[in-house]
Amino acid sequence: MSPQDFFDCATSNLASAALLSRLPSLALPQCYLTAGCLFQATWNRLSGHAADWGIKDYDVFYFDNRDLSWHAEDAVIRRVNALAGDLGISVETRNQARVHLWYEKRFGAGYPKLASVRDGIDRFLISCTCVGIEVASGALYAPNGLQDLERGILRPNPANSRADRFLEKARDYQARWPWLTIVG
């Protein structure tokens, strides 16, 4: 799968396409549309489903280390939700500069202080799901390539090796797309 094929597949989901066209107006630093709304569109195409089938939420990551308060992040969440309000989707907006402040309490393991949105994408539990589209440029970020994604191979990500969480997430994906293969 080429980067252009991936982009075309991801934007065949009209909600993803709308977010990519609207988010630049917010001028969020290092803003990316990322995670399931992108890679699940590929699995949907390969499974004969609509591009938005089974997508639970749309992840918007940005990186702003000027104010790490919950209040500042909540203000951005509200702006993004207002921007996407007519799309009928759930949007999860997270400032990657502050993930280390809440991750351990929520998931039971420490999390390093990140230096960029790409650092956050690099830490997704499943290697082939480490994908994002930068909203300002439309550039694809896929540090592990697209081959396993297209083949449906779910491998643990060595950058975030939590076997319990990996299996939980991989099994959830496999329940929706039974042809996916869990490796490792």
List the topology elements.
Blueprint: H1 3-11, H2 14-22, E1 32-34, H3 36-47, E2 58-62, H4 70-84, E3 91-95, H5 99-107, H6 117-121, E4 132-134, E5 140-141, H7 147-151, E6 153-154, H8 163-176, E7 181-182
Parallel strand pairs: 2-3, 6-7
Antiparallel strand pairs: 1-2, 1-4, 4-5
Helix pairs in contact: 1-3
User: Which value, in Å, is the CA radius of gyration?
Assistant: 16 Å
CATH architecture: 2-Layer Sandwich
Tell me the CATH superfamily: Beta Polymerase, domain 2
Structural class, by secondary structure, is alpha/beta
**Total count of helical runs of at least 4 residues:** 8
Q: Approximately how much helix is present in the residues?
A: 40-55%
**Percent in strands:** 5-15%
The count of β-strands is 7
Largest sheet: 5 strands, mixed
Q: What's the number of structural domains? A: 1
Inertia-based shape: globular
Q: What is the CATH fold-level name?
A: Beta Polymerase, domain 2
The averaged pLDDT comes out at: 95
Looking across the biggest beta sheet, what order are the strands in?
3-2-1-4-5
Element pattern in H and E: HHEHEHEHHEEHEHE
State the end-to-end distance. 23 Å
Report on the structure:
- This protein is an alpha/beta fold and 184 residues long.
- It has a single domain, classed as Beta Polymerase, domain 2 (2-Layer Sandwich).
- A 5-stranded mixed beta sheet has the order 3-2-1-4-5.
- Helix 1 crosses helix 3.
- It starts with a helix and ends with a strand.
- The mean pLDDT is 95.
